Amino acid sequence: MSLKIENLGRVRKISFNRPDKLNAFDNLQFAEVRDALLQADASSEVAVVVLTGEGSAFSAGQDLYDMQLILDGKVKKHVFPDFLRSLSDFSKPLIGAVNGLAVGIGMTLLAYCDIVFMSRDARLRTPFPQLGLAPEAGSSGLFVSQMGWQNAAYTLFSGGWISADEALKFGYVWKLSEPSELQVEAMAVAENISKNPILSLVETKKLMLASGKHRLGRECHDREIEVYRKLMGGALNNEAVNAFMKGRPVEFSGISEF
């Protein structure tokens, strides 16, 4: 199983558990996180969920070996849309504890968390341009909503690293923690929130979401999917994935971009 699940009182801690792959998401892990969130949402014994990673990374994003299987037509059903829906529809408080690098979906899924803690030595990145792709998971709208236009534009256009200090300044995370204190501080807040009635927490989140945050995410994701279908498997994306698989630098020059 690619997850580690712990129940601590009324807090359920879900840890991505592929440390040898830096917790990169393959189709199986997308499915397992989806199922874990659905189960936690339906449980009368779970008030709060904390998402974190095992080892040195939160998540390195989509497993590019898995992406190659998709490009080769060897994945019959990609469960990413269902995974994303389980995040956007999650009715209880969802807390992120970013313990290390968070790349691609590792960063964009944080937009669906209600509170995000981040280790001071962690970093974020959305390398979609370097993969010949465009934003995913509704990040084209959610980043603008949460960070402001220019911070979102820099993050998505550059595909560069965002430090913990920058993530806090951008408003993308709530609090920075020392690496040794991250889990303790995130769990303390989760446990404090979990003392409240679940019904009150659910109704509060429902009112907050009525402002349209996750609806925005879904609408942006629908548009992003159309762009993804156009770009994924194209010459630029193929070059990026092939370069990664062969351990060589990406060479986009000479490839028609239009």
In short:
The protein contains 11 helices and 10 strands. It is an alpha/beta fold. A hairpin with a 2-residue loop joins strand 1 (3-8) and strand 2.
Question: How are the SSEs placed, and which strands pair?
Answer:
Layout: E1 3-8, E2 11-16, H1 27-42, E3 48-53, E4 57-59, H2 64-71, H3 80-88, E5 94-98, E6 101-103, H4 105-108, E7 115-119, E8 123-125, H5 139-147, H6 149-158, E9 162-163, H7 164-170, E10 175-177, H8 182-194, H9 198-209, H10 213-231, H11 235-246
Parallel strand pairs: 2-3, 3-5, 4-6, 5-7, 6-8, 7-10
Antiparallel strand pairs: 1-2, 8-9
Helix pairs in contact: 1-3, 2-11, 5-6, 5-10
Task: Explain how this protein is built.
By secondary structure, the protein is an alpha/beta fold. The chain has one domain: 2-enoyl-CoA Hydratase, Chain A, domain 1 (Alpha-Beta Complex). The chain has eleven helices and ten strands. The protein has a six-stranded mixed sheet, with helices on both faces. Strands 4-6-8-9 form a four-stranded mixed sheet. It is globular, with a radius of gyration of 18 Å.
At the first level of CATH, the class is Alpha Beta
Query: What structural class should be given to the helix and strand makeup?
Result: alpha/beta
Number of domains: 1
Number of helices: 11
Quick one: biggest sheet? 6 strands, mixed
Label the overall shape: globular
What is the helix content? 40-55%
The CATH level-2 architecture is identified as Alpha-Beta Complex
Rg estimate, integer Å: 18 Å
Strand content: 15-25%
Low-confidence stretches: none
| Terminal residue distance | 42 Å
Number of strands: 10
The name of the CATH superfamily reads 2-enoyl-CoA Hydratase, Chain A, domain 1
Which series of helices and strands comes N to C?
EEHEEHHEEHEEHHEHEHHHH
Mean pLDDT metric: 91
Question: For the largest beta sheet, what order do the strands appear in spatially?
Answer: 1-2-3-5-7-10
